[in-house]
Structures are given as structure tokens and as C-alpha cells.
Amino acid sequence: MATQRLTKHNAAMVRLGVHTAETLGADALLLLLDGATDWKKVRETANSKLTLIVAVDSEDDLEGAAEAGLKPLALNKEKAPLLERLQHALLEAAADELIRPNGEVVTVYSGFQQGRFDSISHMQLDERMRRLSVRDLQRLDSSVPLKTLKAVVDLAVQIGREGREGKPVGAMFVVGDTRRVLEHAKDSGADPFRGYNKKHRNLMDPRVSEDAKEISQLDGAFVVSADGHIERSRQMLEVAHEDLQMSKGLGARHWAGAAITRKTKAVSVVVSQSTGTVRLYQNGDLVMRIEPMDKAVKWQEFNYDPPPTGSE
Ligand SMILES: Nc1ncnc2c1ncn2[C@@H]1O[C@H](COP(=O)(O)OP(=O)(O)OP(=O)(O)O)[C@@H](O)[C@H]1O
After folding, report:
1. pLDDT per residue over 158-210, tens digit each?
2. Which residue out of 173, 184, 233, 253 has the highest number of ligand 1 atoms within 8 Å of its CB and is therefore the one to mutate?
3. What's the rounded Cα separation, in Å, for the pair 230 and 227?
4. Is the pTM of this model over 0.90?
5. Backbone φ and ψ of 278, nearest 5°
6. For the packed helices 206-215 and 146-162, what is the interaxial angle rounded to 10 degrees?
7. Whose CA is nearest to atom 6 of ligand 1?
8. Would you say the C-alpha torsion 26, 110, 158, 225 has a positive or negative sign?
9. Could you give the maximum distance between any two Cα atoms of the chain, in Å?
């Protein structure tokens, strides 16, 4: 388990962060840490009514944080560059409604040296940012558990935002009512997930979702069970869709994604390759649309190079 000590220096940076957030009227203070720490001591050090969000890479490192009155966030982004971790933390915080989509947040983090807070940023989230909230998903009233839907939508949003190897990538996930969905599906090529143990097909596992991102470059849809397992990948759906109302400009992937939800009780989550937009369909209708997130947070003013290491 990784740790980050709450040294005198780190504690002073936390207090500075609190002071900055209170002075500027920010929604919350976000601490981006490199591991677990003494969560109770963090709360005492901050000594403030502010919402205190603590973000680390692994769920295990967050033990005791909620009990200490902090808002824990697991990023599952080990080894990702700092900016990506920061951005992800903000998006997750907005998704959990800890900060408003157009809110302000002060972040304290280690920009230069692991384990040592050295940077404080005051960030304003763009009002165009519209992150899926759990309430949005609850409105869908689907037989698919919320936890699964959230995992699939998170993955879809990441695919739409990140693409693969510098290129935009599209994808489709058909979630729930697997048996009936498979009646309308055919392999479009060798399925890399076929034959894998169930444990290695669970989309809640970050390693599995990384594999899914790779496979999304190939043709076809993922068929996902209601409990979040990839049952098949690379599936071409064969469904008639004459009576569907669709926006102009959407092609075969979106048509098929919508049509399968008319024939079955599944929810489909479709990422457009051309725009990165994620659409959710249910009963043949578009029920939710999520724009790519990276347009939402402004990072342009935030580019910097760390100082050179060495003694010169
Ligand atoms: N019936 C289908 N079942 C599963 N996947 C499909 C189906 N039809 C198309 N696709 C996938 O969608 C890809 C893109 O198709 P197309 O460009 O027509 O879709 P689109 O809806 O315009 O989506 P995008 O915005 O991503 O381009 C195909 O290469 C294929 O991988």
C-alpha cells in the first residue's frame, strides 16, 4: 500500500490550500496524494467546514478516509501523467457532485517530487462540462444495475476522450439482457475475450477496461452482462431499424445501437468515432448524450515543464 506522510511541510501546504479555497470561495479543496495518509490528521489539520476531497490511485489506500469526514476518490490512474490524474480527479469529483460542473476548486498536489506537496492551483470548471451524475443514470430506470452502467459509461467517455494511439476511436457496448442480445449478434472476427475466465472479463477491473480500450479499435460491439462482464466482443448486430427516429449524420453503429434496445431490454452505450460523443439508447430512443470531457476543463494555461533534475 502506497503512503504519503503528513509531514510538517505537507500539513502547512494543506492549511495554505484551505486558506486559498476559503478566500476565493471555492466549492472544495482537493488533495491529490501519492498514497494513504493519516486521514484523521488531515481533517484536523484542515480544520475547516470546506468539502475536503482526497484523491489517490487505489481504493485500498482510501481506507478510513470517509470515516474521518473526507470525500474519497479512487482514480485508478497509477503511472498516468500528473495532468491526466488531476483532470480525472476533477471530473470524478464533479460526477460525484462534490463540485458543481461550473464550480471552482483549489487543488494541492505534488507537481515536482513524489510525496511532497509543492503546488496549489485554483481551477474553474467550464460550465459546458456536463458529467454524468448518478441521478441521471437512475432516471433511466433500467434493469441494469447502476454500478455496471456507470462503469460502462465511464469507459465509453474515456474512449471518446482519449482515442487510441493518437487517433479517435468509436465503440459500442450493449449492456444487459445478454441472452436476447446474442440472438442478434454475430462474430466480426476472432473475439479476444472468448474463453477467458469470468474474473478477467469484469469491466470494473481497470486492467479489463484497458484491454477493452485496445479492442475498441476493432470492428463490432461489446456485449456486456448486467453484472458488468464482457460476454463477447467484436459482435456485429443484425437488427432491423426502419421505424427508428435518428439524428441526421449518425451512421450504422448508432442505428444498430439504438435498434438492439428496441428488440431487447438492453441499454446501449455508443461512442462516436468522429466526435467522441457518447450516446445512451434504451427502448430504441436516445436517452442520454455526453459530450467529450476534455473540451470541458481548461488546461491551456497550465502547461509547464518540471525543472531539470541534477545539480547544475
Ligand atoms: N451493426 C453493427 N454492429 C456492431 N458494430 C457496428 C455495426 N455497424 C457498424 N458498426 C461499427 O461501427 C463502425 C463505424 O460505422 P459508421 O461510421 O457507419 O458508424 P457511425 O454511427 O457513423 O459512427 P461513428 O460516429 O463512430 O463513425 C464500423 O466500423 C463498425 O465497427
Report:
1. 898 888 888 899 999 999 999 999 999 999 999 999 889 998 999 999 999 99
2. 253
3. 9
4. no
5. -105, 130
6. 50
7. 253
8. negative
9. 71
Averaged confidence pLDDT in the chain = 86
d(CA 247, CA 198): 37
Supply 176's cell numbers.
Answer: 444487459
- C-alpha dihedral, 229 to 151 to 200 to 66, nearest 10°: -130
> Of all protein residues, whose CA lies closest to atom 25 belonging to ligand 1?
272
Range 226-262 burial, b when 16+ CB lie within 10 A, else e: bebbbbbbbbebebebeebebeeebeebbbbbbbbbb
Tell how strand 267-271 and strand 171-175 pair up.
antiparallel
CB atoms within 10 A of CB 178: 20
ipTM for the complex shown: 0.96
Which letter does DSSP use for residue 3 in this model? B
For the Cβ of 246 lying below 6 angstroms from any atom of ligand 1, the answer is: no
Q: Is the CB of 221 under 6 A from ligand 1?
A: yes
What is the CB-side half-sphere exposure of residue 274 using CA atoms within 13 A?
6
* Residues present in the chain in total: 312
Distance CA(125)–CA(90), nearest Å, equals 8
Query: What is the distance between the alpha carbons of residues 186 and 177, in angstroms, rounded to a whole number?
Result: 16
Residue pair 117/109 in contact (Cβ under 8 Å)? The answer is: yes
Ligand 1 atom nearest to CA at 274: 25
Instruction: Find residue 229's DSSP bridge partners.
Output: 202
Contact 194, 232 (CB under 8 A): yes
For 108-148, write each residue's pLDDT tens digit: 999 999 999 999 999 887 654 444 455 566 666 677 888 89
Set out the domains of the chain in order of their start, with CATH numbers.
Answer: 8-126+296-301 (3.40.1380.20), 134-292 (3.40.1700.10)
Type of residue found at 164: R
